[in-house]
Amino acid sequence: MSFAPDLTETLARARSDLRMGVPVVLADAGGGALVMAAETLSEPRLAEVRALDLPVDLAITGRRAQTLKARAYDGDIARVILPPDATRAWVEAVADPADDLRSPMKGPLATRRGGDCGLHRLALTLTKSARILPAAIVVPLEDGAAFAAAHRLTLVDAAAAAPHLLRLSPLEHVVTARVPLRAAENARLHIFRPEDGSEEHYAIEIGRPDRDAPVLARLHSACFTGDLLGSLKCDCGPQLNAALNQMGQEGAGVLLYLNQEGRGIGLANKMRAYALQDQGFDTVEANHRLGFEDDERDFRLGAAMLEALGVTTVRLLTNNPAKIARMRDSGIEVTERVPLKVGETRFNHHYLLTKAQKSGHLL
Ligand SMILES: Nc1nc2c(ncn2[C@@H]2O[C@H](COP(=O)(O)OP(=O)(O)OP(=O)(O)O)[C@@H](O)[C@H]2O)c(=O)[nH]1
Ligand SMILES: [Zn+2]
After folding, report:
1. Each residue's pLDDT tens digit, 318-353
2. CA distances for 287 relative to 79, 213, 361, angstroms
3. ipTM attached to this prediction
4. Whether the CB of 222 sits within 6 Å of ligand 1
5. Contact call for residues 258 and 217 (beta carbons, < 8 A)
6. If you take atom 11 of ligand 1, which residue's CA is the nearest one?
7. Is the pTM of this model over 0.90?
């Protein structure tokens, strides 16, 4: 028995370090790399990096590279070569699209070609899972383990971490308690906690659904603005209420409240996307300009929660065919799609239309 953190725990630390602006070290057979999130990079740490006198890359996603017209030789990612005189503001301008229109990046960005980009890709996966901008400073190291020890930095074994991050983290069922709701007095709330230290997810069970018949179910992704504030920019709040009401009327159902704010990019990034929408970009373009895919959610999570509740066959309340496909991929049988058309306003009409035209949502 060792007190040392295992891989899952080390990755949780690495995510937290990146959010705090602390560098982490990724080690591989070639030595490794020093990694810092662009969003939380400080001027003094950038100066330290420069003092190392090593080649410095700014890893960005292929999506962000497209917006910046930078060549992404690695397909899904690009390795922008940091100019010797680059400041923190320059790094921010590459990473954050907020000022793309007001002060466009000058000159073509030089990007690296050839060589291994596995550590860059892992760095971006970590920044995404830390819910910050997907952009990271990456500096090659001859001996990553020694560098991490010398600077007391978190050391991640890259070869083990990359596949580990692709799997769904196991969920622990923490507790269940009764919570009478306006929509249904006989409701219970189940709390699930991922082993990887990420946010908890909730299941609201209405009545005692018969597990031998299809259960009325909804996978609802968290929307702080819509669910809590009554934002008119989306349809989430009315959808949440309508789903619970329907389950209350039928006397049974399961609503999963998944903490995948902003289709999995986090609230801060979603607000960045909203700011871009104010500049004229639609919901899909805004995600892309930030460097994200349209939808970064992992719906295996929902399937795992349903299974934990003993639910394997559902009537799914949704307008999103991708949710149905992902449930079926994960072994949940969807016998019926139950449409959920509520909450259209003059503020979200264009958003709903974009989801129908670009993301295949059913109108
Ligand atoms: N990135 C981003 N996320 C958004 C935006 N508007 C709403 N969201 C998020 O989108 C998600 C909406 O989730 P859902 O309503 O569960 O899913 P859906 O894909 O619309 O599918 P159905 O509602 O089931 O038809 C929530 O996580 C919201 O926070 C936006 O403009 N940008
Ligand atoms: Zn919403």
Report:
1. 999 999 999 999 999 999 999 998 888 888 888 888
2. 20, 38, 17
3. 0.97
4. yes
5. no
6. 263
7. yes
